[in-house]
Design a protein that fits this description.
It is globular, with a radius of gyration of 15 Å. It has a five-stranded mixed sheet. It has a five-stranded mixed sheet with strand order 3-6-7-5-4. Helix content is 10%, strand content 49%.
Length: 146
């Protein structure tokens, strides 16, 4: 069995998302900031008449916030009943990996980016970090932003 991922970069690192969670990939659109939201919630954008909350993925992972440019993209994902966008540096490819290629993330004993990973896989000469979207969710705050 194969695992299909959308490969992309955020914070200068290579990540992957289950292709079934991705609804669309949008060109960069400036966001409207919201008051009283966590630091990683960049704001909201209009998605065909609906308010779409947008997360700065790098900031959510504990890295410095993304300094957006027109070259950035927003990956629109569906997480349960919640639709949200993730700001990423770039989207590179669709990757099919054997299911056994996904290795569990290492235990670091820290509350860091590893907590958001489903696993790691070797892709050419780089490691792709596969995100676990259920751990990335911002609970009530994102629902309130929408």
């Amino acid at each position: 069995m194969k695992v299909e991922l959308i490969a992309f970069e955020a914070g200068g690192q290579l990540f992957g998302l289950d292709i079934m969670a991705v609804r669309e990939i949008r060109a960069w659109t400036p966001v409207t900031p919201l008051p009283q939201v966590p630091h990683y919630v960049a704001g909201v954008v209009n998605l065909r008449g609906a308010v779409l909350p947008v997360i700065d993925l790098a900031a959510r992972l504990g890295w410095p916030p993304t300094q957006t440019t027109p070259r950035h993209a927003i990956i629109v994902i569906q997480l349960g009943t919640q639709t949200m966008g993730l700001i990423v540096d770039s989207v590179s490819d669709i990757v099919a990996l054997p299911a056994d290629a996904l290795q569990p993330p290492p235990s670091t004993g820290q509350d860091d980016v590893v907590q958001f990973l489903q696993g790691l896989a070797a892709l050419s000469d780089r490691m792709v970090m596969v995100l676990d979207l259920s751990r990335l969710e911002a609970t009530e705050t994102m629902a309130n932003a929408a």
